[in-house]
Amino acid sequence: MKNTVLIWLAIGLASFILLPWHMTEDGLLEASWISDGVASTGLFASLSGQWWLAPAGLALMGALILHFTIPEPVKRARLMLATAIAGLALIALQGLIIVRAGPRVFESLLTSEIAMAGQPGMGAGAGICALALLFVATISISQSGKGQGDSFVVSTIGLIVALVAIFVFFPVIHILVRAFEVDGGYSLTEFFPRFFSSDIWGLGCLIGGRSCGVGINSLFLGVMTGAGTTLLGLSFALIFTRTDFRAKRLLRVLTVLPIITPPFVIGLALILLFGRAGTVTEFFADLLGWEQTRWLYGFWGIYFAQMLSFTPIAFLVLIGVVQGVSPSMEEASQTLDADRWQTFRFVSLPLMRPGLANAFLLGFIESLADFGNPLVLGGGYSVLSTEIYFAIVGAVADPAKAAILAIALLSLTLTAFMAQRIWLGKKSYATITGKADSGQNARLNPVLRVVCYATAIPWAALTVVVYSMIVFGSFVKLWGYNHSFTFDHYIRAFGIDFTNGRFSGVAWDSYFTTLTISSVAAPLTALVGLSTAYLLVRQKFVGKDAFEFSTMLSFAIPGTVIGVSYIMAFNFPPIELTGTSIILIIVFVFRNMPVGVRGGIAAMSQLDKSLDEASITLGANSFTTVRRVILPLMGPAILAALTYSFVRAITSVSAVIFLVSAKHNMATSFIVGRVENGEFGIAIAYSAVLIITMLAAILILQLLVGTRRLRRSDRIQKPA
Amino acid sequence: MNTTQTGSVRFEGVVKKYGAVTALKKLDLSIDPGKLVTLLGPSGCGKTTTLRLIAGLEMATEGRIHIGGEDVTHLTATYRKVSMVFQSYALFPHMTVRENVAYGLTVKAVPKAEAAEKAEEGLELVGLAGFGDRLPSELSGGQQQRVAVARAIVLEPEVLLLDEPLSNLDAKLRRHVREEIRQIQQRLGLTAVYVTHDQEEAMAVSDSIIVMNKAEIAQIGTPSDLYEAPSSAFIADFIGDANLVPCDIESSAQGSATVIMNGQRLSIPSDAVSKGPARLVLRPHALKIAAPDQPGLSGEISYAAYLGKEIQYTVETAVGSLFVISPVQANSFAQGDSVSIGISETDARLVSA
């Protein structure tokens, strides 16, 4: 382990001396920074006036000297830890103080011309130096403690904490700061009136006449969607588990749909059906002479679309909940002479209550965070997620307003998230005991069964119609006006000019960008998510609860808020990433990480802990144990994490729409652009191609990772 | 295979706390090289914690741990020369039997050919030569257990740890496998620490038994020490069945004590003890059941169970209900019979009240 420290010190010093500290115009791979001379390296820059860069090099040198001069290991580790942390703190401090426009804080101290000229964002040199110092610090921690520390584990914790701090907390703090900004200054007194203004929280619509605030609109929509999806999901789940409904496999398909559907696609399909020129609208207009209205564009349209989008999610959650009610409980109730309705009402339903609350909160959060459907169908009904977007890209760009709206949205989702964790976390009636339960679940009471069928079946049929519209609509010339069959949309989007072999379609650029970025982001997401899961399940360390909470937090941050916070935080030095593809990859990794963590935790809890312990007592260290024992046994979880993060990266729109650039455009933001121009055909065609791409990707990943099936007999944890 | 350096284990004032809960109170113990020592006790007594502290899977809150004369208190499991056989076997399901056995060698960068050779030797030792290419899931429970043992001993550990290794086997196989484990341990002269909650198993395999109760050591001794000279009512009750009957010590002389139980004066073998209340340990086999006209403690049979080779009686007497085991005889008794129970003074023992 001593060698690892030396290696990192060497890497850090080498990058300080040889690599450009700041970001270079052409990127690292272009050789121009070499020909520009050594002027840009950390060492040279700090000697030629940018003295504030020196601490990085000094800390690395200091740690190196300490490593060779102090014989007592614990004392040496503690001193090296202090040096490394001081170095990191000074790097962060200089980055935050000396920005492009020169020092704003400590202005009187830093008056030199070079300091006032500022500096560009941190580049390769700075990044690698900081990483080296971080690892020197974590390895030192593992050696300064009482032996429990394993340098691999401590370093992984350190790295993940640092990444979450930089890419989740730093941007969110930026938003908070911006919300207090008034004309170049900061004011606490200005914030509260603006935050609590009637634009956001007004209740005018209740009294009549005027419209409610956007916050109230979002809240109302969220509660309605949460309640609606939970009820529908429950009736699907009951049909699925408690009846012998024939087409259960078809219902299963429903659960996969929302994962592979870009969020606005449902909205688009609804426009084709119920819009002013929609099929259904025209049908009734002809038949009954109803007026063709724009009712779809507003609350009911969004609500409709969200119900279609999120019911499958509630269904997925509630299948587990309904199955979790142990049959023996219901049998016990029936032997005590309760009838089927009483059993359901007094035993099963109360047992499901925490699960129902969970499904509701999930629907609530999803509805608040939903950006695609309100954008497509919003009309006069404005909600927070879209208002944030318009505050940034609208005619009057108002970042401070966007920041305040973002905080309003964030406080709603965070409240729901906290409620879910605090209230439901302790209240689990998990009735799966690990003992084989051979009983049979009670069948549904006839009235209840009819109610379930009557709601769920038409809804499932509607879902099928909506999805077939996506395929059908892409082959129609101009929906509502000219229904002749055509390949035009596909040709325009994905045409290939075979005479010169060029991809002449307008969609190719964004399609390839999307695929590239998603395939880079997916393995990184899986890596970060699964390592976090490993730490949470298998390691004990101080602050584990806080660590878990902070990694799950980004789940509660709506994409729009992430997007806004990223452009606010990473548009300027010290970390300048906007306009690059890196920022897109990063946003995907940290948005989708909680799912990787959850999946990893579930899979890892299935692996008996004594497998790790066996490996460790046989002389393997944690890294070897992970590589040779845990990873090979996690095949399915890795596959799930990879698939999910890949697909999520393709379908994501809310965060991405702020971060794309002309050079790096993504499929979803391209489609939204077409929708805004009224080019529905091409938008629908592109969406259909995306869905097919994702299905193909899922199949390919399954073939690649899933071929090795293991006998699982030993893997189920034995009850202690 | 010859194990050259087998080591001793020594705990000096070891304390283990999980937050506010104390799992081990100041433990001192010493295990000699080449011995098989069992940690025995009811669940939650701290025996598994002790084992995991030796393994390095838990770190001591206080105190020092020495293995083979070396202070290993701050070393993690990876760096300790001990290996462990787990209750669930913990065989890696994605590796073949040979890969499993060779795992510890390959992570130590032993050349592949040598590792495979040693693994084969290990498998031979546990009687599984030729099973190397199978997956663990293709073996029976007993075979899996033996693979786990082979995997642990090919590393030639200073100490071999076994955590309830037989608890997942069925009763008949258990006796067979425990004999095998004992034979391998003796042949290789290994130091072994064996955790179990089954007192019969402990007595069958151990050179010495450490009985633990409530996070402390209750008594250390050979199996016969514990049975013949229990130091407390807990030990007497835990090691073999025992009837504990209150009595009063009247006087104590060299090697024996005079006690009064239910008005009857008895002379019980004992070291010097002080006067006062105590308890008499009466083993069920050592009580003689006879017709009521015979001398002894009179009582009435409240339950009788015929088990083929013996009959178990529960007898209500003036000193409480006594458990008596008697061989099947021509004149056996039935529920409700009045009987007399004869106490063999030389088989009885004294423990503190």
Describe the structure.
The complex is a heterodimer of chains A (720) and B (353). By secondary structure, chain A is an all-alpha fold. In chain A, 70% of the residues lie in helices and 2% in strands. In chain A, the strands form two sheets. In chain A, strands 1-2 form a two-stranded antiparallel ribbon. A two-stranded antiparallel sheet of chain A has the order 3-4. The longest helix of chain A is centred in the last third of the chain and has 31 residues, at 508-538. Chain B has eight helices and 20 strands. With 353 residues, chain B is an alpha+beta fold. In chain B, a hairpin with a 2-residue loop joins strand 1 (9-18) and strand 2. In chain B, strands 6-7-8-3-9-10 form a six-stranded mixed β-sheet, sandwiched between helices. A five-stranded antiparallel β-sheet of chain B has the order 13-12-11-14-20. Classes of the chains: A mainly alpha (720), B alpha+beta (353). The A-B interface holds A 146-148, 150, 608, 610-611, 613-622, 624, 628-629, 632-633, 710-715, 718 and B 55-57, 59, 73-80, 82-84, 86-94, 103-104, 107-108, 135-137, 151-152, 155, 161, 168.
What descriptive keywords fit this protein?
heterodimer, A: about 725 residues, mainly alpha, two-stranded antiparallel ribbon, two-stranded antiparallel sheet, 33 helices, 4 strands, about 70% helix, globular, B: about 350 residues, alpha+beta, six-stranded mixed β-sheet, five-stranded antiparallel β-sheet, about 25% helix
